[in-house]
Task: structure prediction
Amino acid sequence: MITLLPPGVEVEEAYGDLPDAPLHAGEAEVVARSPVARRLEFATVRHCARTALGRLGVPPASILRGAAGAPQWPSGVVGSMTHCPGYRAAVVARAGAFRSLGIDAEVHQPLPDGSLRMIASPAERRHLAELPRLGAEVHWDTLLFAVKESVYKAWYPLSGTVLDFADAEVVLDPENGRFSARLSASGPAVDGVGPVSFEGRWRVVDGLVQAASAVPCPP
Ligand SMILES: CC(C)(COP(=O)(O)OP(=O)(O)OC[C@H]1O[C@@H](n2cnc3c(N)ncnc32)[C@H](O)[C@@H]1OP(=O)(O)O)[C@@H](O)C(=O)NCCC(=O)NCCS
Result:
């Protein structure tokens, strides 16, 4: 994940759960009635987040779930978390450097039958069909899904509004591992201004599809 994010973003990953990862105040209550697997991923990804926060010089803090599930970061910090089978990751940065971050990881396998139609516009489906294979096969449908999830995770803390999959039109750059996502004019706006474009990076590694969006602060 580190190679997908610009300097100034701290990244911590785990390729399995850490059974002894401690929970901080208020966190145990969030997952008290959840299955063991959910409690483990919840604690492990927060351990990753606190490790990354430590590199920013931010003391360990609880990371609770706020509106619509968005993580509540310590003051002055932006960040994002993801977990999928075999992988957990957290990214954080100073709010003075980045307005928002969004990451997503998925197992590198095709989406279930019928899912692409629910997440992709006709133009995006044509785009995916035209993408070259680049030697190793890329499951472009799952990549598109991960990109949209990463955009949403960066978008929500900025806007406080939910995005439909149809609100973002994504173009993948298959050669340079980049993407752009243009939010539709009818979609929600940042600071009253729209439409908004997100730029990000993606890669396929270790059986995973990873996507990351970073919104820098204006210079
Ligand atoms: C919330 C959502 C993005 C999570 O993605 P996911 O692939 O299912 O799961 P991941 O493990 O990658 O991510 C889960 C983490 O996302 C973060 N998250 C959840 N809701 C969030 C939100 N509204 N904003 C930012 N981050 C959020 C949390 O950190 C969560 O981890 P936690 O529950 O341990 O705190 C997804 O379930 C969802 O609701 N998608 C529909 C909306 C959407 O993506 N629209 C696309 C618009 S283009």
